[in-house]
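Handout, section B. The chain below has 270 residues.
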Amino acid sequence: MHGLVRAIPKIEPKAQPCWCDDPFVARLKAHVDLGSADLHSLRAVIENDHAVKKRRDLVIDGYQYRKLSFIKEGFAARYKLLRNGKRQVVNVLVPGDVVGVPSSFLDRATFSVTAITDMKLQVCSLDDFVALCHRRPKFSLALCWIAVQEAASYAERVVDMGRRTSIERVARFLLDVHSRLAMVGRATESGFDLPFSQELMSDALGLSVPHLNRMLTKLRADGLITIDGHRVEFIDQNALAMLSHFQPFKLTQVPPATGLEPSVLLRHQT
């Protein structure tokens, strides 16, 4: 039709995740050197940026989950719901953590994961991430380092439940969350935001809500912490660490490649 111009819809390019101030990348870089080509390869396997509302289940116990979701913003809880209705939170997930470890590596998830705040996730399939590891082995090494950190964290939780007193558990929980947030730039030297309920904390620590509240009140009365809304500030962090037997661990760096192929290394060893 002469004189009429048909509007051609503009195709927007697929939005690419930005790694500026990204907590997952910050966590990786604490263990392994990543160059621009590595970050480009990681960016290529991200399917989408996914917004999740508070109280939505991300992983469901007993069902298959084949994704890796890197937490950009927000908090989640990994938990087990027992037949009698009681819930045990086994870990709180913070920015920089990965939803899908260990669930995606099992035939079916053995724990559920729920969002305890609104969240932003960067999602990729497990198969795509494994393919990335084959192309760039440093990502598989970084994932091994993260798994070691998870294992050490769970070992401390066993000690919490078996041997630490109530007030020691609470103090150590606060210090642990603070150190994990500080690692990815989400905490100050002396404080952090703890945007979830005392009910969730009690499920994580194996305490009743009233008893947890008494322990927090004692920590405040002893001049160790202040709590204003969801903001926790440490008044005497050293004393808190001594009380809770808190010994922060720092993983070593992934050793650099020697430049030799594995077959060459094998010949040298023999």
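Note. Residues 137-163 form the longest helix (27 residues). Compare this with the example in section A.
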